[in-house]
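pinging the channel bc i need a second pair of eyes. not urgent but kinda urgent?? the chain im working w is below, pasted from the shared doc
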Amino acid sequence: MTGRTPTGKEAACREAARRIVRYFAEGVPVTEKMHRYMENTFADLSTLERILADSEHGERASLVSLLFSPDEAIRIELEPLLENTPLDEEEARRIQDFVMEMRPRALFVIPGGSPALEVTVDPDAAAAFIEKLHVSRRLDPRVVNAIHAAFRHREGGSETESDHKRTVLRIKAMIRQSRAGTTRFEIDALSRFFTRFPMDAPEAFSSFSFFLDFLEAPGDEDDLYQSLRRRRDLYRKGLEKGAAANRQMHENNPETRMLSGLRLPYVDAFDLMQKIDILDRICFWLFETHGE
């Protein structure tokens, strides 16, 4: 490594490492999905320990990637530090060095609160965890300013102000984690969202989460409104396909469908209707019109 990390950034790297090590030690929650995978794939916990200890094992890399993935809690905790002291890739490696100096162990806790597994955090695991934090990513100032403006007038006091501050950190952490917010189209779209969408509305956060996912998906990056409309058309066509499948199901008995080889697609109509509703709400606030 060339040069020397500036004192302020070195202090930030050390603090980030300290918080990561504390996060490992206090117990990393294992999600229901992860728990099912562990139960269905491995005979017992000792198998997991052996795999993690064997650098040559074929399943080790995927297991490390699964277990050492930062959750929302640690992302929110680190967000103010990363925002106030922008770091680069070299400094991300410094965080890993500081983590390894502390010789951490990670305790994984299964749903229900019972300890499931305690392992030593090796360099590969630390690297996988820190890579997913995207510590070197910068949030565009226009997006940050729009977020702050959207919540500024809601700061008042007591628990409400604390809740708003946590929501702001949660939003920033989600953008840092996502693939959106880097192109001009995405930056303009996010800035427009926070400028126009009422963030005090009950559906504000779910609408933002949907909008962020929408921006991550491949699509046209020329006209936001038309892009939203095209997505709505896809959902509407899905509803039509589901309705057609439902009609065929009622018009033909199971034996007829089996003999004819007819395969009916599964369509979650309720989910599609919810998404159309969210899209209409976004279009209304961002463009003062519905997506139809």
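so The chain has 14 helices and three strands. and The mean pLDDT is 85. — does that match what u expected or am i reading it wrong
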